[in-house]
Design goal:
By secondary structure, the protein is α/β, with parallel strands linked by helices. It contains 14 helices and 16 strands. 38% of the residues lie in helices and 17% in strands.
Amino acid sequence: MSNEFGRQLPSMSGPVPGPASRALARRIAAVECRNISGSESPPIFWEAARGANVRDADGNIYIDLTAGFSVAAAGHANPRVTDAIARQAATLPHGLGDVYPTRVKVELLERLAAVAPDPLGVTILASSGAEAVEAALKTAMLRTGRPGILAFTGAYHGLTYGALAATWRAEFRKPFSPQLYGGVRFAPYPAPSPDPDVAAAGSLARVRELLRDAESSEAPIGAIIVEPIQGRGGILVPSPAFLQGLRELCDGERIVLVFDEVYTGFGRTGRWFALEHAGVVPDLLVVGKALTGALPFSALIGSPSVMDAWPPSTGEAIHTSTFLGNPIACAAALAQLEEIERNGLVARAAELGEYVEARLRSWRDRFDVVGDTRGVGLMLGVELVAPGEPERPATETAARVVRDALRQGVILLAEGPAANVLAVTPPLTITRDQLDFALDAIENALSA
């Protein structure tokens, strides 16, 4: 056991949330939109993080099983990343976007071209995953001239309007549905099944039907956008045949295949990209989150042939933003990618994932509330269901387990449309002792 912050086991000094977090909750309620941070129970407020540890405003130290929404792949506040941020901030914190580029932007674009699978290598930089998704949808429109989009049930692509139109969950869509683009159709994402290939075949059959139906509509489909593994959809891992079948349906000219790897990219699944598990390369690849490990940044990486659908610049880019290719974010991304490679974190995610997955499988027999365990690398999920009723999600139980784990010093989130899938997605730097402690804490909560 280490006493170094980042590699520590939890150290709890009082109730959770403590008085400092409660005071901050009262303050934020007065100044932030109530839809964002408010909840029936006050949250803990983070004050510091490093490695796989988080310290809250009351001095409690936690193990983070979320990696900050999968951002901190190389650990929170990775020293080489933070040093790169500080150096760049002291030298050139802001450039002039698409008008006068910076050297560090060129270096990052070259690095992304090197790490992306062939033939991908032409990039549009952005600030959020949703923004990069919208760049992908624009690219597909330019390439195909076909405005329709095919997405999938359970999909989460972001909450800006273009991305929201391709996001499945009703609670996000319904309040804004009159303003959402109507040319999006949804096919079923393969559900967990004893025979994943059969589930894939069923989904692909429906995809083909929707493609045919859309041909005679005002919005024939020009883009299929899919998460190779659904994260917020409940840690769903389809058969490789599913992605392979989508690739066969997309020629890159009339229909463009877009993979949203904002959650899964840069080592999370034990490969640089989740697409490698299926041996499929899309026309467009969307990445973010772990790209910098610290700052808002994302990218759309496409094949030259598809990206050439964009016209050459005549002095005014038709897709840009003030902070496009921000130098600090570029420097952070270069350092983050170097840390993932230098520390062998992709292989480490695969190794630790096998260890954790084996332990999670044992829970199916030990706890009658555990209906399924699934995932790959350090992107793993534990589905909780009503005992004896595997089709009924145990949402309240999952919420209780998350609360109980937090009191034991473990930060855990529940994913899926019913919020009943416990997600194990820690920093790829997490120690074995930290993992064991965190899994023990979840077991204690499941036993309660």
